[in-house]
Amino acid sequence: MAGPGSSFAARRKAVKKGVQFTLLVVGQSGTGRTTFVNTLCETPVIAHKAPVAPEMAHLEDGIKINPVNVELEEDGVRISLTVVDTPGFGDQIDNEFTFNEIMGYLERQYDDILAEESRIKRNPRFRDNRVHALLYFITPTGHALRELDIELMRRLSPRVNVIPVIGKSDTLTPSELQGFKRRVMEDIEHYSIPVYNFPYDAEEDDEETIQDNSELRALMPFAIVGSEDEVEVNGEPIRARRYPWGLVEVDNPQHSDFQRLRNALLSTHLTDLKEITHDHLYEMYRTEKLSRSMVGDAGGPDYSADQDGSVLPEDMATQSVRLKEDQLRREEQQLRDLELRSQRELAEKRQELLAREEVLRNLEARLAQAQTSGTPPPQQQQQLSMSQHGAMHPNLTPGGYAAEEQQHLHNGMQQQH
């Protein structure tokens, strides 16, 4: 297995092009998940959960899956780190939905790779978002694993490298912490949970790799303490948590396993985690997916498989092409649906425009007819109607005579007298 003795050629390539690495963090609220990520990246990558009003405390938001990208540099190697946070995990009474959401996210990344591999012409800008490691934060109860912990690690281990950690381990005394670690590993062994245990080959690996992996394996589950604040000690700033009785230093191996875990994730075992993801976890998923598809297409047993249940390589290649053809057909159908919807909307707009033009033509026709027949416009019709109902003309007196004629008659009568 890969470890500190990884090939020099691979390291030179990583230094030149950079390394892409995806880390999934899962744990209940209050286990130090957010603080750990910000401490790992040495920058506030994830915002802390806002306080919830008492009247809203009974509402459940459900799990969310939020990937965040950050650029790091470790030992001269540029690392494009993607941290996938899972706020809301474990906050429900029934967590079946949260298990399925995380599993679905992991498998969708595998499906994207499977589809890309089936392309005749690969996309040079395709981004591999497969998760290479999952840090599961165990609540520091001091007792043993809970059913929630066992079920999640057991379900997700076939799809991702699961690394158990104890969040906020400074809440336990040294003796409590050692006992808790021992019971957690006993439960993992008892329930046959295949966590990532820093594997090595005693016959092929060098002594340095064997010793380093053995020490890391002995630290599992890693006791984590995180802090986003710095405290000045002897004139030097260090990351630590201040308590009335003293300081807990994040990078002090006697206080926390944080530095050993960070070095393993981003340096010594980064390549090994990626290789296991691609060579074992993804290949196992790929075989299962293609086998299920072949059985489903045949509508019965898979007679192309040999007696031990494995699938022949030529059948897998044929099925891969078939999956790609199905994907192309789905994309073509989506384009046709989009085109039909656009044509339908365009036809509706055209009918609406024609209706408005018809209304305008009718108004113009009525106006022209009124002008030809001498019918007064609507405003004059209203004034005429008012005069017919007793409204006086502004130049007429109540007797019906014009004012000038009435004055002339009055003057003539005076002359006769």
UniProtKB/TrEMBL annotation:
Keyword tags: GTP-binding, Nucleotide-binding
GO cellular component, as recorded: cell cortex; septin cytoskeleton
Renumbered residue ranges of the record's region Disordered: 369-417
Cross-referenced PROSITE patterns: G_SEPTIN
Transmembrane residue ranges: none
All copies of domain Septin-type G, residue ranges: 17-292
GO MF terms held by the record: GTP binding
Matches recorded under InterPro entries: G_SEPTIN_dom, P-loop_NTPase, Septin
Keyword RNA-binding found: no
Family that this chain belongs to: Belongs to the TRAFAC class TrmE-Era-EngA-EngB-Septin-like GTPase superfamily. Septin GTPase family.
Protein name, per record: Septin-type G domain-containing protein
